[in-house]
Each structure stands twice: as C-alpha cells, then as structure tokens.
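Reopening closed ticket. The problem is back. First fold of the pair:
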Amino acid sequence: MLLDEQVTKYSALDAWFKTAQGGRVAKAFFDELQQINGHLKGERLLQLGTCGDNLWLSLFKFHHKWLVNPSVVPRATASVSSLTALPFERDSMDCIIAPLSLEAFLPGKNPIDEIDRVLKPMGYVIFFGINPCSFWGAALALQRLNCFGQSAGTLTSSLSLKRIMLQRGYKQCALSSFYYIPPIESPFWMKKLEFFNEMGKMIWPFPAGFYCFIAQKYQYSPPPLCLDVRANGFLVAPKSPLQAITKWIHDD
C-alpha cells in the first residue's frame, strides 16, 4: 500500500476512535485486555497506528511504549513511518499491538512481515480484528462503516490469521470474540442495546463483532557448543591399543 493511502486510512481510523461509536469499541478493547493485565511485561512495546486516546496502553507495564503512524498526529507522541517499513531493528520489540491493522491493508500487503521482523523471539503480538461473519464485517464489506473514511477495508477471519501465524512459527496464547452491539452510530441506541454484550456472555444471539488474537513468537535457538576440548585430545598416540592386526591368521 502506498504511503498516501496509509495516511488517509489511519487518519480516518484515529478520528473514528474519537467518535461515540469508536469510543465504545475502544472501551471494549480495554475491557478485553484487562483480563490479561499483568501477564505481558517487558522493556519495549509498539503499537501500529494511533487509535484516539489509546485507552488500553495504560494496562501494559512496559518501560518504553512507541506508537508508529503514517502521518503526524496532534497531541500524540508517535514515530512517522510506513507500517510496512518500520524504523526499528530486527528482534527489538517485546510486544506489538495491531488494532484493525489487517483490515486497513490489502491481502498479501499487510504489515505481518514487519511485525515478525521486529518482534523478539518469545515476544507477543496482539491483533484486534473485525469478524467477517458479523454485522460489523458486513458493514465494512458494504462500506457502511466509516472507520477508514471512504476507503474500503479487508476482512480476515481469526482462523485465517491463526493459520498464517502458525505457519510462521507462532503459538496461540489467546483467542476471544467480543462486542455484540451492531454497528450503529446513535449514542442513544448504543446505550439501549448494551444488554447484547451481557447476553453474548451466556448465549450468542448473533456473531460477535470483534476478535482478539494473541500469539507468541517461537524461534529455534540451538544451545551453545560448550565442550572442553584440549589440544592433547587431537594427538594420535604412536601405538594405539585399537590398531588393526596386520598378520593373517588361519588354520593349517
């Protein structure tokens, strides 16, 4: 994806998270990650894109937290860069958060390769995605959801994402579905339909709108060779007790 298109989509995404509809979704992200609060710790955390007030970042106990965005965002500290060419070294991040990142890119051109490059072995990646089989997925496919402005989005199911990450050597840590309120914009109706979220914990009236997929990066690391090899061990004795017999022995 061209940088200009990334700027357009992520500017619209940041603005959408500041609306009543996006704010509800951000609060749902916060509640979902609150369940794993305290399990993910480390030195460096990176999030792709700025999402309004980024409520969930306060939950993570990392010494350094970075936001990377395709454009400058007022009142937000972020590195400006293409999300498919991150300005970080290989194996430099302990955790990466990707909220609606796969939806913003075309298939095969998403930032998964860059996520894999900069994430440390045994590091964690958190994906927030839209369920293609939900009302939210239908709204995005029909361009009735303005989280990316007038631009179209791409839908990736949690099962497809799991297969992609397993092929790269990742291990699934958590997978959950949440948020059952349909993609309506009216604050009045969002408040009236809040009981759908409670019903979804007991029965599923219809598929959840979002999923959270957390995976850990596994990378083969051979043990170091620590053999105590001395020079004398390579010296061949002039007379070895295991020398072959050179005289042919036979019966008369």
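Second fold of the pair, where the issue appears:
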Amino acid sequence: MARLERKSLSNRVVDGLRAGDRDVIYWDRDLRGFGVRVYPNGVKTYLVQGRGPNGSRRITVGRHGTISADEARSQGTSLLARIKAGEEPGTGEGSGPTVADLAERYMREHVEVRCRASTIAGYRLVIGKHVLPPLGKVPLSALGREHVAELHYRLRKTPVAANEAVGALSRMLNRAEAWGLVPAGSNPCRFVTRYRTRRPERFLTEEEFGRLGRALDDMEAEGWLPAHAAAAIRLLMLTGCRSGEVVGLRWEDVALERNEVRLRESKTGPRVVPLSPAAARVLANVPRLAGNPWVIAGREPGDRLTHLAYYWYPVRERAGLDDVRLHDLRHSFASRALALGEDLTMIGRLLGHKKIQTTARYAHLARDSVKEAAALVSDSIAADIMP
C-alpha cells in the first residue's frame, strides 16, 4: 500500500522526490485529490482521486517530464469536477496516449516502413495476441514495471512467447522515448529478467546424415514426399541456409552457370550463397513449373511451399531423428565445416552472419576440434616414443 504524504506539488518539489522500494503517492496540500505517484523505477505520474455518484475513481493525468506540475494541476482540477458530476473521464483528456495508441503508431511508422513482410507479420501476432489484450487500454503515463512483470508472468508457461511479448513492448517504448511520448530512460521492461529458453544445440553425426538422406530418397520414391519438399530439405543440409531463405528462392535468382544463388530476403539482408556441385545438382533436378516463379513450388498454381515442417516431421520420424529441428540442419552445416578445419570467420561468411558474435556460439565446437586434432597428433607421437 502506498504511503500518503501531503506536499504542495510543484516542478521543483516533484523533481526532488526520491524513489523507494515501493510505490509512494504524495498528495497535494492545496488541491484535494491531486497527487503524484513515484514508482521504484523513478517514474513519476500525476493522478487524481475523487468520489462521484458512481463511486470513487482514480485517474492518471500524465507523466512528470511530459507535462509540468502546473499543467497536471489544471487538468486534474477539470477531471475532479467531471468525476464529481458523475462523468466517466478515464479515457478522455488527461489520460494521454495508451499502449494501443503507441502500438498502432509503432506498426505504421516504424515496423511497416523498415521491416520485411515476415517480420511485420510476427510483430502483428505478438503485439495483437499478447501485449494489447492486457495492456492496450493502459495509458503510457501509467505503465510501470508491475504491468510488465505481470505480462511476463502470465505467459510463463510459454516462455518464448513471454520473452517475445516483453521484447516487442520494450522496442515500442524505446521508440516512444525517441518520439518524446515518454521521458528518456523510463522503459520499465528493462527490469524484467527474461526466461531461459535456449535449448542445447543439436548437430547431426555422419551416421545421422546418412539416415536422413536415405529417408528422403525412400519417401520421395514412394511418392509420399513431393520433389520440391525433398529438394528444400536437401538444400538446407548442403548450404546451411535458413528454411525461409530456401523456400523464398526464385528461379530468376538461381545462377547455376556461376554456381550461386542470390537471396533477396535474408535475415541479415540480401546476400549471395555459393553452391557446391552437390547443391547445384539438387537445384538442376528441381522440376520447373510453368508460370511459377518459385523454386520450391507449393500445391497451388504459382505459389511457393509455405509449410515445410509439414513434410519435415514425417521425414525425421522415418530417419529416427525425432529431436531434430529444421534449423538444426544449419547448425550441423556449421559443425561439419569446423570439423573440416574452417575457422569461425569463414563459417560466419558461409552462414551469412554480419557479426562474429553470432558465429561465436560455435566456438565450443572449434575447441573440441582442436582437442581432437591435438589428441591425434599426440597419440601418433606417443606410438613412436612410448613402449
């Protein structure tokens, strides 16, 4: 429960209020029902509390720094009069833009301008499904870390979704700071510790690659696996590309005469992927459908395959690899490159990483390769010098 203390609120007084380990409300000495709430994160919001025919109401006026104490007092006087008259001013003047208002502007002016279609769809899903239902009506001036903590906790059974929701909200609020909607440094999401979700990396062994190859051959020969889906999975294994990059490949971007393909919508931007002779053969054998620009064609005329996982699950089951994801084929490509002596810089280029830190996740494999090489050399010498 907040501690109640009466002060005559001015900009200087409010600036001097210090945050504690819990919320504190300081009520104005002159205007009854007008106060400022100081959150533990240092955010200060003006509010009014009054009683009318419909009972007691508490309404946020605005955030200190966005409006002054005098402006908040003027708006508060009007709000208190409306509450006393029985009006419902909670979403009217004085409450300011809400999280829903910010989300609409963020999507329109930032995400839809800067991001790819798949990224835009991802934002729409996360914000619309997880952020707006509980927080859409909350004014930005009233949004505190307790709201974010509750959002994160309510999604605890789906930790990936919980982290994505807080991440999307955090980016929205960072943009709100840049737009001057909230004070700088006021983002409450920074206080939330994300759930640990990263699973151990899975890398295919030579024997497992063999089983997967045979499963693809058998299921394609049996007529269960379409040629385009089989080709997509083989290309994932042979190029280290992401699944979205392979299924988004167009014939006009394939240059078999140069043994390369151009990716238009790579996660890190457009890039050129070199093709090994084996990968080039896979592409050369993919059936070309008249009027369809996509390499990995879908079921509908002129469309591409959109749900590769639908075919992947039965394939991995046939191969006895139930714990392997499509993305693990990319990890396995990197693992094999390390085993063959390639360094992290080269692997980063092969995978299309912009930052060496991204490739550094494979550093432990590099250490393992060095240890294996050291053991081989040492054992060879030991055979000569030790009985």
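Update: turned out to be a display glitch only; the data is intact. The chain has three domains: 3-84, 99-191, 206-327. The longest strand covers residues 44-52. Please close again.
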